[in-house]
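Supplementary Methods S3. Complex input for the beta-D-galactopyranose-bound model.
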Amino acid sequence: MNAINRLAAVVALASLLPLNAMAADNGTVEVLHWWTSGGEAKAVETLKAQVEKDGFIWKDNAVAGGGGAAAMTVLKTRAISGNPPAAAQIKGPDIQEWGALGLLTELDDVAKANNWDALLPQKVAQIMKYDGHFVAVPVNIHRVNWLWINPEVFAKAGAKVPTTLDELFAAADKLKAAGFIPLAHGGQPWQDSTVFEDIALSILGPKGYRAAFVELDQDTLTGTQMVEVFKTLQRLGTYMDPNRAGRDWNIAAAEVINGKAGMQIMGDWAKSEWTAAGKVAGKDYQCVAFPGTQGSFAYNIDSLAMFKLKNENDINAQNDLAKVALEPQFQTVFNQNKGSLPVRQDMDMSQFDACTQKSAVDFKEAEKGDGLQPSMAHNMATTLAVQGAIFDVVTNFLNDPKADPATAVKQLDSAIKSAK
Ligand code: GAL
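Predicted complex, serialized as structure tokens:
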């Protein structure tokens, strides 16, 4: 190859490289998150594409592990060593804890220029602010209290879509008798507690749920209804696949999608897997409120908190990410893939599938009364320390089929006390 041909080859190769690899350093934004399942990775890809289109470099820091416990450990290590990423998926009350450490940057300029206060529900805007300043940008609203159903499996088993806990057990019996796994589940603490909180919402109602997991009210935590919650969890456990230990939530979702199992209790990120598999809401699968929680909406808001940076270009990239996250185009495509509701109030919901449309209606309904409650299992209701204490008790209980519900309630109470 002569010199001219070599040069031509280099130029041709360069044209194949993605734009970001060639871009002058306009700034890099490193994003730490745990969206690694097929469907969720597709959703986050839309954010990356937009940031790159704006001329910045996206440095992906995806830490596998549903619910984010592993990602939070990585984040803490990075922060302690004085090297936090530009943005990290931090949610709910935890935003206040990071804010108090003085590590988060104020996003007031972006927020003002893009009218965030008017765009966001007030409750959501409040969560994103530390000391009156925006320090995080929300991307969506997930609902946690869902039951996902494969209607073909239900039809084969002669099972009816449940609306009460009794009907849930009746459906599970039918599925079991027909040789299906009634309830797909992954034995990981956050998944166990997702089921636990749905049962609590069903049995205690939204006010009791709030008393237990937001107010940490001792009477509620130790009451007879809480014993009932553990009893119900234990009974549901007998319908879960015994090989569930350590299984990721998306693998459990795949069991329902592939017709091996009939149902999954999971937040609506589960829908991202159905969507990625090309399945249509309301036809190939059904989403119903977890039995007994109709009218309630346990919310889980994903948000990216922004850390203080020094480099001017990187700050520009960070601001771009914050701006893009609330733009209508991104809100549409991201949430179509993620399974969640757009967090903007002014979106055209006809672009979303039947489950998301139902979620939007249910959100508005729940908002009118006490129905709207923060998810304990997804870092929205309490500190990570208290949440960790609840996770331990719930998972130990579920892993021991002979465990005593009344004892579990006492353990829950003392674990919460020492974590407070
Ligand atoms: C939640 C998060 C969701 C989803 C889920 C499974 O905590 O808010 O976006 O990623 O974990 O990992």
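The CA atoms of residues 1 and 9 lie 10 Å apart. Residues 34-35, 40, 66-68, 142, 249, 269, 300, 302, 378 surround beta-D-galactopyranose (CB under 6 Å).
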